[in-house]
Amino acid sequence: MAQFEITSPEGDVYEVTAPEGATEKEALDYAKANYTPLEQTENIESATEPEKSESYKGSRLDRDAEGNAIGTWDETPIFDPVTKTNIPRVGNKLLNKIIPQPKKIPAQLKRQLGLTVRGGVEGLSKTGDFFGSPVRGVLNLGLDAKDYIARGGGDRVSDKGLADLIAGDSSKKEPFRIKTLTEAVVTPGLNYLGVPYAEDSGERISQSAIELLPLTGGVNTLAKLFRPRTTMGKNIQKTFVENQGRQLTSAGIVGGSQQFLEEKGVGIGGQIGWSLALGMFPFVGMKSSINKPIYKDRNLTKKKIKKADDLINNYEYHIAQNLNDGLDIIVASKLARDVLNISPTKLTQTLINTDREIPTFLNRYGILDNKLIKQKIETNPAKGYEPATGFSGWVSDTLSPVSTIIKKLSEPVGNRLRLHDFSEQINMKRRLEIVKPFLKVLNEIKKSDLPLYNELERNLDNGYRYKVINTLNNLNPKIIKKLKMSPEEITDSFANTNKLLDTIFTDLKEVGVKITRRGEYFPRKVDDLDGYYARLGIVRANNLKKLLDNRAAKLGLKDGEDGVLARDQLGSDEVATIINNSLKGQGGNSLQLGKPGYSKGRTAGDVTEVTQPYYQDAVHRLPDYIKKTQREIELRKFFGSDVVENEIGKIDMYASIGKIMAKEKVNLSEKSFKKLSDLLQARLIKGVVSSDPWVGTFKDITYLTTIANPYSAVVQSGDISQSANQTSLRHAVRALVGKKIAKLSDVGLDNVITAEIQSESRLSSKVLDKGLGVSGFKRVDKLGKETTINAAWNEARDLFSPKVISKAAAKNRENSKILFRNKWGKVYGDEYQAFETALKSGELTDNVRLFMWHKLSDTQPISLSEMPLHYLNMKNGRAFYALLSFTIKQLDIMKRTIIDEAAKGNVGKATVGATRYAAIVGGGNTVVELANDVGKGRNININEIPQKWLFNILKNFGISEYAWDKSLSHGSISDWGGDLWMPPGAVLAPVEDAMRLYHKAMNKDEELTVDDFLRFFRKFPPVGSPVHHLLGEGAEKYNERMDRDAGLPISDFLGIDPIIENPINLR
Questions:
Q1: Does an H or E element contain 79, and which?
Q2: Which of the four pLDDT bands, split at 50, 70 and 90, describes residue 1064?
Q3: Shortest CA distance to 472 belongs to which of 497, 442, 498, 450?
Q4: 583-616 pLDDT, tens per residue?
Q5: Is 25 helix (H, G, I), strand (E, B) or coil?
Q6: Is 704 exposed, middle or buried (0-12, 13-18, 19+ CB in 10 A)?
Q7: Which of 661, 663, 990, 1000 has the most C-beta neighbours closer than 10 Å?
């Protein structure tokens, strides 16, 4: 190749590269044909572009403090198709990898804010330019004509330089033209104020997306000003004024994609075509609002007509119910459609097919006819939700919370269940708080003076309160000092405990438990039956089996197909009840099997030093008694006056549910009624039966080795994004950073993370509780829960705020109030007005606490009602649900807000729900994951953020990034399913690491390293994981794997063209 010098008419000299032996004209022609601007230099800057601004250099995450690019460069030669040889890259090097500069993130955020402001302001001014373009165009045409006449004809040429040289004569000047407002004022003004401007491909794409938003909004606003009279005009107006959110989204996509295609060198036709096609994406699945004629179906059978008639009857019934609740006809109709899962179009089609019209329920004076409304309600033709069967039913029973299914079957029963859960938790917590000081006294005496404790416990068991008081009044001063309580506080703690026991006795009688009590009662329970009988020399094995068999038969239990005997299916509390009752004598079978143990008068003799070791410790027995009796009280309150007892004094679940259904006038099919009964039986009876001790210990160890570390605490902060999704970002942020009106203790959840993870008396549970506390997990979990309940509180309070707002907003608020009152009126009944009054005044009553419980239960598994049927029925199978309770609840949220809405025909609402979830929850969890990666010492690759975002959504379906890499990406679905449902291997990880450590220690050919020891401790809470990642091999191995698996270089993301097709330098 040869170098040629070419001189322009202005005297400027240009040097071009062309083949050997070419003439000057041939060299110029070659330059025209092969001219390509140089895109890249070693510092990722264009040779023809101006120097980058200081704002740009100072905020680039891929540059160091001096503005130089960071990373490794590919210096592979480029093949030149002209000379058929390889040419050194010189300045055109490909950046393979960058190392982000986190310290520049604030500067980057500031710059992005400035670019957003510029995009919005210039977009707004360009909107004005758009509407003023006709006038400006006419004026400029006039100026062009004047210039044309003045210069005597001829072409007008613009811009001097090499491009003019190639094009031809560049000596003529541009005529005066009227500039746009953006060109003349806005852009120079923003430049003067120092607002940053787009300087690379990515920034130009973003700014183009923003600039189209004001234009779209302006067109929408202008369309609203028209008042079309024809159907066509109204339909045209609808296309502009409806779905503004989708239109704005589409505008951003069109603007951004058009600029992206321009950056990639796509022609103007391709830019327009592809950007418009991509801009249609937000409207996919949306039904048109333009009125279309609907005709009667031609193939109507008797069966179809009957089905259509039933649907209209149900629709009329629900409208009548809503009108009876005080709603207007519009809201009543909408709610009826929502309940029946039908769209307006389907309803219209059904009305046409049946030749029917919806009654207005008005009398001849145009007033609501209450008599007609009540007549329609009494006919009650509505058919409820039918539960799924077969495989779908199995999936539902495995993954769907029972509360969700129960509410679909019967909303009144669903509301009762939520009230039951709340009342049980809050009242249990309050009662445990009362005995907490006395338990503290017992524990300290036990630690300091065991003989004295044993004597005190016997006096408690035998009902000698005066002896207990005497012991407490004469405690060793050292014990009193350790307790940090005054003598009066010590004796008061016992007095308050006695008062509570008396209150429990009264409450049990009031709810219908046939209870007797002798003397000054303190609960006691034999904990070791075999040892007890052996110590007394009693041989009762056969008689005990007989008693257990009789009890199992009366409860309807049968021997299982797996060989488990009916008597072995009795819970430990049930067996203990029989044991306590059997203490009447050695040979007796005279038991009142129908009553719980705490409902009998005491018949056994005094507890002595001989028998005392076989009784449960008083420190554990007292709280267990409070929990058990509170469950019985709340269970009977759940049914209220509708409770039905069988011949043995226990609640007849099926009969009691039947009475509730009759009272609520809920018409359920036989299948639905049985399903509802099974769900309640599982939740209220089987679900409260504790797993065997080994299962509880196994789950405790699982949680201890997986979530009791700082990284899991950070992950738990993702719950805050769920709060924003449930209410709004504004209310969630206010609840997060503002003053918290409600605390977690206000809803009784101080020591509850999930229904699975609660503080219990076993040693492993105490260790887990300590680990979750030290790691920060409990604190972050508490923050997330308190943010949720306070965000719900803020949203409800704002609804009834007297703050003056616009007329349109006021109308929306009134409609929201109607919907709010209708929904929560069904929950509170006669108590609703008191609830609303408390909201307005800001008083934290139990009604307000119940509202918060509802909101928290919608997003987190805080009670057994939020667990699936199979979890409740399989007391030992609950090990398979370890670490899955949160996932199950997230699936439930997605099903309720997305899938169910789509099934109703509300595709738009489902799309909004899906978009909100993906953006808020998926985005929030992605930010949390990135923060965790930084804390683990992992390199952050910007290209991986979309992938992380995707997996943060898919992980709710069990498809995590780990599961994808390990099994799904290789097609191993069975391995994925096994990993998903088998108990987590984290429990065995320390064992595996220990075996690996032992093997290396015994193998002379292998050398033990520090990393081997750190790996062994990686599952030890709470610091094992941080040490493994930061000091061990954790972060290093992750970064190596990411480097190895990295796909395309980061250059595409940064807007860098890695290959220059025609490397001809024009300098």
A1: strand 78-80
A2: very low
A3: 442
A4: 444 334 333 333 444 554 444 467 888 888 888 8
A5: helix
A6: buried
A7: 661
C-alpha 72: how far from chain center? 40
Which residues make Cβ contacts (< 8 Å) with residue 12, sequence separation at least 6? 161
In whole angstroms, how large is the CA radius of gyration of the chain?
A: 38
The residue type of 170 is S
Tokens at residue 431, please? 């009662």
pLDDT band at 97 (very low <50, low <70, confident <90, very high): very low
Hey, which bits of 820-908 come out as E strands? Answer: none
More confident residue, 5 or 448: 448
Helices within 709-751 (DSSP H only): 710-716, 719-726, 729-737
DSSP codes joined into one string, 80-134: ETTTTEEE--TT--EEEE----GGGHHHHHHHHHHHHHHHHHHHHHHHHHHHHHH
Q: Per-residue pLDDT tens for 264-274?
A: 777 888 778 87
How far the first Cα of the chain sits from its last, in Å, is 16
Distances in Å between the Cα of 342 and the Cα atoms of 290, 312, 315, 822 are: 19, 11, 10, 20
Task: Report pLDDT for 904.
Answer: 64
For the residues 38-43, what does the mean pLDDT come to?
Answer: 40
Buried-state track 33-51, b at ≥16 Cβ within 10 A, e below 16: ebeeebbbeeebbeeeeee
Mean pLDDT of the chain: 76
In 657-689, which positions are buried (b, 16+ CB within 10 angstroms) versus exposed (e)?
bbbbbeeeebebeeebbebbbbbbbbbbbbbbe
Quickly count: other Cβ atoms within 10 Å of residue 988's Cβ: 13
- Indicate the burial class of 1039 (C-beta count within 10 angstroms; 0-12, 13-18, 19 or more): middle
**Residue-wise burial string across 754-776, b where 16 or more C-beta atoms lie within 10 A, e elsewhere:** bbbbeebeeebbeebbebbeebb
CA distance 434 to 450: 24
3-state secondary structure 157-202: CCCCCHHHHHHCCCCCCCCCCCCCHHHHHHHHHHHHCCCCCCCCHH
For residues 736 and 715, give the distance between their C-alpha atoms in angstroms, rounded to a whole number: 16
CA 103 centroid distance within chain? 31
The pair of structure tokens assigned to 336 is 């009826």
d(CA 782, CA 747): 12
Please tell me the distance from the alpha carbon of residue 591 to that of residue 614, in angstroms, as a whole number: 21
Q: How far apart are CA 431 and CA 553, in angstroms?
A: 35
Pairing of strands 94-97, 2-7: unpaired
Highest mean pLDDT among 278-287, 660-669, 853-862: 853-862
- Measured from the Cβ of residue 223, the count of other Cβ atoms closer than 10 Å reads 16
Instruction: Give the integer Cα–Cα distance in Å for 521 and 496.
Output: 14
Nearest to 1025 by CA among 766, 779, 712: 712
pLDDT winner (highest mean) among 199-208, 227-236, 674-683: 674-683
**Coil, strand or helix: which one is 5?**
strand
**Other C-beta atoms lying within 10 Å of the C-beta of residue 955:** 18
Give the up-direction half-sphere exposure of residue 554: CA atoms within 13 A in the CB hemisphere. 18
What is the distance of C-alpha 485 from the center of its chain? 44
C-alpha distance from residue 23 to each of 1, 3, 4, 218, 1026 (Å): 13, 11, 9, 57, 71
* Residue 987 contacts residue 675 (beta carbons within 8 Å): no
Are 439 and 927 in contact by the 8 Å Cβ rule? The answer is no
Tokens 């919005």 sit on residue: 120
**Residue 999, exposed/middle/buried by CB under 10 A (0-12, 13-18, 19+)?**
exposed
**Could you tell me if 250 and 281 are in contact, meaning their C-beta atoms sit under 8 angstroms apart?**
yes
Please give the pLDDT value at position 170. 43
> Quick one: average pLDDT of 545-565?
66
